Amino acid sequence: MSDAASGKVSVLFVCLGNICRSPSAEGVFRQLAAEQGLLESLHIDSCGTGNWHIGKAPDARATAAAERRGVDIAELRARQIQAEDLDRFDYVLVMDRSNLADVRDIWNQNGGTEPRLFLEFGRSGHAEVPDPYYGGEDGFEQVLDLIHEASEGLLESIRERLA
């Protein structure tokens, strides 16, 4: 399932609109992977289950919160998940149970990589990354905290897979 030609482990982060949580996860995970010398072994992407924001940049609040932590997500653009993504990615990691249900519908019809909740890789005790879209700036900070912690657990799992 990974990109056999490149031998890379592929990771897809999924939220609702692909403008807050999943691009933040892509950016944080990419930065942590680079810091740990694993970036060249990975293919990282993000998408949304909905189609409202296709082609748009991440939410300005998400971009600003990430930037305060030294993570640049400004160049990312929203896209909608496709059935082929479940064949192309080794990890399909969703932000909440609603996203999980939507992606499971695709998976049940087409097979491929079974989607999982991203925070399964974390130790925070949270099951879901809350959607900060309708809240204040502190919601974006909480999202980044949860994503950072789960990203560390995911990288640990991938390191074991690559060993």
TrEMBL record:
Location of the Phosphotyrosine protein phosphatase I domain: 9-157
Enzyme category, top tier: hydrolase
Keyword Cell cycle listed: no
Record SUPFAM superfamilies: Phosphotyrosine protein phosphatases I
Taxonomic superkingdom: Bacteria
GO molecular function, one term: protein tyrosine phosphatase activity
EC number(s) stated in the UniProt entry for this protein: 3.1.3.48
Hydrolase keyword on record: yes
Pfam families: LMWPc
Active site per database record: C15, R21, D131
Record key words, sorted: Hydrolase, Protein phosphatase
PANTHER family: LOW MOLECULAR WEIGHT PHOSPHOTYROSINE PROTEIN PHOSPHATASE, LOW MOLECULAR WEIGHT PROTEIN TYROSINE PHOSPHATASE
Family of the protein in this entry: Belongs to the low molecular weight phosphotyrosine protein phosphatase family.
Protein name as catalogued: protein-tyrosine-phosphatase
